[in-house]
Write a structure and sequence with these properties.
single chain; 283 residues; mainly alpha
Length: 283
């Protein structure tokens, strides 16, 4: 049923997109991207994924950086392609194949996603503070929370399953780890944003509005809902923040579609060889 709803939402979105934005305009926007812009945008995207892989390596110490990069790339590819976020299961398949303890894999996955989410919201509030300085308050709050998570174990009881988690966090977590995870998540997001500016040639037109659109699209990638290949959920999340502040929905839907197409192609370029490498590694 979830898959059916995801496919239905994708078809509905494409019909909605081409109703408001003529196909000729979408094709024109795609053609305006030069090969050089695509290559440089892909380099920014590749370094973004490298920083994410370093973060996973910090969380799972007994894997190599190559294995971490391959797992990250394959997971992103499957997550982009499969509906209803079923692609996330690939992470647990690969960690199990590498004989990583399931509790450890689950903890690392949860912490990695948590820092992704906090980094996105921190950047979101910081971008809003350019126009509305009061948003510096939640920005600072999120920064403090992210750097203090290593102390969360003191809130857990000392017995039972939560006691096991308490001991695990007490043993594994530290301020240095929290700082590293936060920094790597922020750098990864910023480099991915640079790929957007490069691909769509928006460096001269850069403003907090472009940043809001990017962060809206990124937030769609950590939400529990996900259409087939992300079509629809990404574009609406990309354009909605700008629509709320009076920008043209048509223009930002088109830009969101072009950048989303780039992300899908880039994830396939990195994900296919990564999945083949991991399959060979486990065979």
């Amino acid at each position: 049923m979830k898959s059916f709803l995801s496919f239905s939402f994708t078809i509905l979105f494409l019909a909605f997109l081409f109703y408001f934005v003529p196909l000729t305009e979408v094709l024109r926007a795609l053609k305006e991207t030069s090969v050089e812009e695509f290559i440089f945008a892909f380099l920014f995207y590749g370094f973004s994924q490298l920083f994410r892989s370093v973060r996973w390596k910090l969380l799972i110490k007994n894997i190599s950086l190559i294995q971490s990069f391959a797992m990250n790339s394959a997971n992103i590819m499957f997550n982009n392609l499969l509906p209803a976020r079923t692609g996330e299961l690939s992470w647990f398949y690969y960690t199990k194949s590498l004989r990583i303890n399931m509790s450890y894999a689950l903890w690392s996955f949860f912490v990695g996603r948590l820092y992704d989410l906090m980094a996105l919201f921190l950047l979101f509030f910081f971008s809003l503070s350019v126009a509305y300085p009061l948003f510096l308050i939640p920005t600072g709050f999120l920064l403090i929370i992210g750097l203090s998570l290593y102390k969360v174990h003191i809130l857990l009881p000392a017995s039972g399953k939560l006691g096991d988690i308490r001991e695990f966090l007490k043993r594994e977590a530290s301020f240095k780890l929290c700082l590293s995870l936060y920094s790597l998540s922020l750098l990864s997001s910023l480099l991915k944003f640079f790929s957007l500016l490069t691909l769509l040639n928006l460096w001269d037109a850069f403003s907090y509005r472009v940043f809001l659109a990017f962060l809206g699209g990124e937030l769609s990638s950590v939400l529990p809902v996900h259409s087939f290949m992300g079509f629809g959920t990404y574009e609406f999340a990309f354009s909605l923040p700008l629509k709320l502040i009076g920008e043209s929905l048509k223009e930002w839907l088109t830009l969101g579609f072009v950048f989303h197409s780039f992300l899908l192609i880039s994830s396939l370029i990195l994900g296919i060889p990564s999945a083949l490498y991991l399959t060979k590694r486990f065979s």
